[in-house]
Automatic annotation (TrEMBL):
Pfam families: PhoU_div. This is DUF47 family protein. Gene3D superfamilies: Phosphate transport system protein phou homolog 2, domain 2. Belongs to the UPF0111 family. It comes from the Bacteria. InterPro entries: PhoU-like_sf, Put_Phosphate_transp_reg, UPF0111_domain.
Length: 206
């Protein structure tokens, strides 16, 4: 690891860990949505909205710390990119839940549960990885696995689209469901962006 002569602002590590823990909360709400009937979904959406607001607060705190810190633990652009990508994940998960409620979707298509399971696993891995930014250790397996999960998410997404366009659903329902599964796919992409940023940071710090 590169030797430094100057002290570094270390609170970023705790803030990244808190942001990732909040994403785990969001992924659990997505899982809860799967087993909920339509009458319970509005309340889940409200809790997801609160989690998304907490994520925004965490992101703003990182940006504020970045603006006020002379010395940072790694490159400023990487701190900004990592915080923004973590925030994107929460935004996409909250959007998916909100769309389910707004569109009054009665039944999600088979395969969405696989999308959400992938997101939940990626959330756990991300939360486990963030504390390791302090030492830049045990991170390689993290970004390899998240990239594998994103590839799996791509395959699930393609199968879902094929299912939606097989003639079972009417055109309006297809539009609604496609937007939901597309947003969940964007969440998987955002997890990969986080992992790629972590890899970039680790390479620079090695």
């Amino acid at each position: 690891m590169r030797f430094r002569l100057t002290p570094r602002e270390t609170s970023f590590y705790d803030m990244f860990a808190a942001s990732a823990d909040n994403i785990v909360t969001g992924s659990k709400l997505l899982m809860e949505l799967l087993g909920a009937d339509s009458s319970a979904r509005a309340e889940i959406a409200e809790r997801m909205r609160a989690a998304e607001h907490a994520g925004d607060d965490a992101t703003h705190a990182i940006f504020h710390q970045l603006d006020s810190s002379f010395i940072t633990p790694f490159d400023r652009e990487d701190i900004y990119s990592l915080a923004s990508s973590l925030d994107d994940i929460m935004d996409f998960m909250e959007e998916a839940v909100d769309l389910v409620v707004l569109y009054q979707v009665e039944e999600l298509p088979k395969g969405v549960e696989q999308q959400i399971e992938v997101l939940a696993r990626a959330a756990e891995l991300t939360a486990e990885a963030m504390p390791n930014l302090r030492t830049m250790t045990n991170l390689t397996e993290y970004w390899i696995e998240v990239n594998r999960l994103e590839n799996q998410a791509d395959q699930i997404h393609r199968k879902l689209l094929a299912h939606l366009f097989n003639g079972k659903y009417d055109a309006i329902e297809v539009l609604k469901l496609k937007q939901i599964v597309d947003v969940l796919e964007e969440a998987a992409d955002a997890f990969e962006h986080v992992a790629n940023t972590v890899e970039t940071i680790a390479v620079k710090e090695s």
